[in-house]
Write a structure and sequence with these properties.
- The complex is a heterodimer.
- By secondary structure, chain A is α+β, with helices and mostly antiparallel strands.
- Chain A folds into 3 domains: 169 residues, Bira Bifunctional Protein, Domain 2 (BirA Bifunctional Protein, domain 2, 2-Layer Sandwich); 105 residues, no CATH class; 56 residues, S-adenosyl-L-methionine-dependent methyltransferases (3-Layer(aba) Sandwich), CATH 3.40.1630.
- Helices cover 37% and strands 25% of the residues of chain A.
- Chain A has 13 helices and 16 strands.
- In chain A, strand 13, helix 13 and strand 14 form a beta-alpha-beta unit.
- The radius of gyration of chain A is 27 Å and the shape is elongated.
- The two termini of chain A are 27 Å apart.
- Chain B is α/β, with parallel strands linked by helices.
- The longest helix of chain B has 15 residues.
- In chain B, the strands form 2 sheets. Chain B has a 6-stranded mixed sheet.
- Chain B contains 8 helices and 11 strands.
- Classes of the chains: A alpha+beta, B alpha/beta.
């Protein structure tokens, strides 16, 4: 059966994404909508300061609606299990809206590879990220980065924790004048120049990776640049959708290594984000486990995908009380049998358009123009 | 077509003439019109004239690709955007002001009148000072005169308004000036165009 007339575009995309992940051996993972508050409170650092939506369970325990899926997946990972797991999920998460006056329910689809991450795993992740966004829009972009690059730079600069935080904020905002304002006071001229060089690396991958390689000061930076270049070289025709950008937010508490962000033209925020999160695994007590994954956020995508006004009904059937039940039923059956969308009632549907109007009065069928 | 959000008023006019000098002119802009959208297909720009405090929202939500807005507004609304350039125009300070000769009573909750609610909260949180915020939308200077508040937190340009109302700056909070901001997603797709504007603007401002 073909559901193209029934499914909204975002629902279709959601199914296509699931098919893509299933084909690559990812298994659907389903979880509860809430967990004990304590679990999220303990791991608050990873929730980017988001407030939790809490309620009290019947036995008095404080519970919270899930603000994040990855934490729940990591939690249930068995420490002593060898080998890898490939999982995907389609779930709602609950967080404070950006305007922060109310909570928002956001639909998310994501995939996670947990266990051992090989270079092929990273390649598969980035390829799937590109192909996921291509299902939405062929011109979409993925910006790659690597936490090791900036970490390596900061290791070399030797700044205080507060200064590093201020500089990272400037880098994420592509804010040159912020760095200039700190120069002389917190930063030396040489330090500022090195930061400017890193900040300016944003754009076409080929050019940018050369810039990046030229400014490497530590082994960590060189390793990061090498890993990115090696990955890019084998992406084939997916390269067209790839950029390099060291300004994408890199929470080092959570991520270590490859990170990426995806953008769709016409959607004002990043719609995809992901990366390597061994740090999170270790801090949550899953020693020796590696992991990489990404998530797609459907809050703004949903509006982007459903710009078409709803399809009008094919026919509207209005009958009066004198009409025979079987006449109405037969008319409906005939039309729906042809795959048409039909409304049958004693009055017209409010606020909906229809192509044909069929009146059944005193058991005679009359056809009129619709309002569509 | 590049959508540029400009703040209505004096700062917007100044910024427009900067864009015009760089070749992104729109003759209609200088006419006395009430239009809110002015475009010039030849130079590929569309100017949106917006209330200054809304520029951040238009850019954050991608209705405008880039925009110009005061740092004071950015500090207050904290939009998720790139802050690409300091234009050094519309310079002023966010400051706490009080009546001349005011002495702070640190035993009491401080009453602060302001339209910068978030800036005020963050500033006093940093000082660990307990405050009561009185949100006003204009003529903030009136509040301490009438005893509605102890101090105000507002922008101070030349200090004339303060002087004429027997007020003076008590402490400075942060400097402000006009900033060029860009939407994070739109920037990925129009980075060449936007980078060109930033580079040209830097030259123009030297």
């Amino acid at each position: 059966m073909n559901f193209s007339g029934t499914l909204r575009r975002d629902e279709q995309v959601s199914l296509e994404l699931r098919a893509l992940y299933e084909r690559h051996g990812y298994k659907k993972f389903r979880m509860g909508k809430f967990e004990e508050y304590d679990f999220y409170a303990r791991n608050r650092d990873y929730l980017a300061g988001s407030s939790l939506l809490t309620f009290t369970d019947l036995d008095g325990k404080l519970m919270a609606l899930r603000p994040d899926v990855t934490l729940s997946i990591v939690k249930r990972t068995k420490e002593n299990q060898s080998g890898s797991e490939k999982l995907y999920y389609t779930e709602n998460v609950y967080r404070a809206a950006h305007s922060a006056t109310e909570y928002k329910e956001t639909y998310q689809i994501g995939i996670e590879h947990i266990g051992k991450v090989s270079p092929y795993t990273s390649l598969e992740m980035v390829s799937l990220a590109v192909r996921s966004l291509r299902l939405i829009d062929t011109g979409s972009l993925i910006s790659l980065s690597h936490t090791g690059f900036l970490s390596g730079l900061f290791e070399n600069l030797g700044l205080s924790a507060a200064a590093e935080k201020a500089v990272r904020t400037c880098i994420e905002g592509k804010n040159h004048h912020g760095i200039t304002a700190m120069t002389g006071d917190v930063l030396t001229k040489q330090q500022a120049d090195a930061i400017f060089a890193a900040m300016d690396i944003s754009g076409s991958f080929r050019e940018c990776i050369e810039q990046a390689k030229a400014m490497c000061r530590t082994d960590a930076m060189r390793a990061a640049a090498e890993e990115l270049e090696m990955l890019y070289d084998v992406l084939g025709e997916l390269k067209n959708n790839i950029r390099l950008d060291f300004s994408i937010p890199s929470d080092t508490q959570y991520y270590n290594g490859l990170i990426f962000c995806g953008y769709v033209k016409g959607v004002s925020r990043a719609v995809l984000s992901g990366g390597r999160y061994d740090n999170l695994m270790e801090k949550m007590g899953k020693k020796g486990k590696q992991a990489i994954g990404f998530a797609l956020y459907f809050d703004e995508l949903e509006r982007f995908l459903n710009t078409q006004p709803p399809e009008p009904l094919d026919a509207c059937i209005i009958y009066d009380r004198n009409s025979c039940l079987s006449t109405v039923a037969d008319t409906v059956k005939l039309l729906t049998g042809e795959g048409k969308k039909v409304w049958a009632a004693e009055s017209e549907p409010e606020g909906r358009l229809y192509r044909r109007l069929i009146r059944i009065e005193n058991n005679t069928v009359k056809e009129e123009e619709g309002n569509a | 077509m590049l959508n540029i959000a400009l703040p209505k008023g004096r700062l917007g006019d100044k910024v427009y003439s900067l864009f015009a000098k760089m070749g992104y002119d729109c003759s209609e802009f200088l006419e006395d019109t009430r239009k809110l959208v002015i475009e010039n297909p030849d130079s590929g720009v569309r100017y949106l004239l917006i209330k200054p405090s809304d520029v951040g929202i238009y850019v954050e939500r991608g209705a405008a690709d880039i925009g110009v807005v005061g740092k004071d507004v950015l500090l207050e609304t904290d939009p998720d955007v790139y802050e690409l350039l300091d234009l050094n125009l519309g310079k002023c300070n966010l400051a706490v002001a009080a009546r001349n000769g005011y002495v702070e009573d640190t035993e009491r909750t401080l009453r602060v009148a302001t339209k910068y609610v978030n800036v005020t909260k963050n500033y006093y949180k940093g000082l660990n000072r307990e405050i009561e915020i009185i949100k006003l939308n204009g003529s903030i200077e009136l509040a301490p005169i009438l005893g509605l508040s102890d101090v105000i937190l507002d922008i101070v340009e030349t200090g004339t308004t303060l002087r004429e109302n027997d007020l003076s700056v008590f402490e400075y909070v942060a400097p402000s000036s006009a900033r060029l901001i860009a939407n994070k997603s739109n920037y990925q797709f129009k980075s060449e165009e936007i980078d060109r504007i930033v580079a040209r603007m830097k030259e123009e401002l030297l």
